[in-house]
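Supplementary notes (optional reading)

For those who missed the lab, this is the record we used. Protein: LuxR family transcriptional regulator. Length: 211 residues.
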Amino acid sequence: MIEDHPEVNQNNCEFLQILEPQCTCVGVNTPQQGIEQLELEIPALLVIDLQFGTVGGGQSAKPGLAMLKQIFECYPTVNILVYSSEPNCLRQLIAQIGNHQGGFVVVNKMERRNAFLEGARCALAGQLKIHRDLMKEMQLTQQELEILDLLCNQALSDRAIAQQMHVSHKTAQNYVQRLKAKLDIEPLDGQNTNSRVAVCMAAIDRKLIVC
């Protein structure tokens, strides 16, 4: 937990223990302390606020954004939950978020606490979930374009994609989930076939693939 309000840190820890009673929660108050802690141990989940107190008594997102940039560079697979009242500050990091290999989920502090728990679950599962307005600005990576070809042009299943790319089935599922998120495909009540068709239709519409 990287958060400069001790009571929020404590509350977040208590909620994570609802999700996983045996988890160990470490809270630090500054981005610098967060980076130092990461150098000692990579957590299963990193919970970050963007706003930190300034010398003048105000709040600034600059330290939080600078910390995220460093994390993206040095820890590309760590699972991250951004829990902040100013999620739109992430707009300037949209390219780095799109390339991050670990889970990345954003939850607004103004939402109910169960949104925090759901966000933690999704981040731990390696998923990508941010506000739709930000998601629309996100470009597909070269790897995701390759997966799109396997999915749409070659009609491969998640398991076949995993075999083709020499990754686990779960990793392949996360790849496809990220494609759905970036292409703004809404969940269709578990109807996986329909959602895959929707991915391909959206890709054709954006000229990402040729039918």
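If you only remember one thing from this example: Strands lie at 46-48, 52-53, 59-60, 80-84, 104-108, 128-129.
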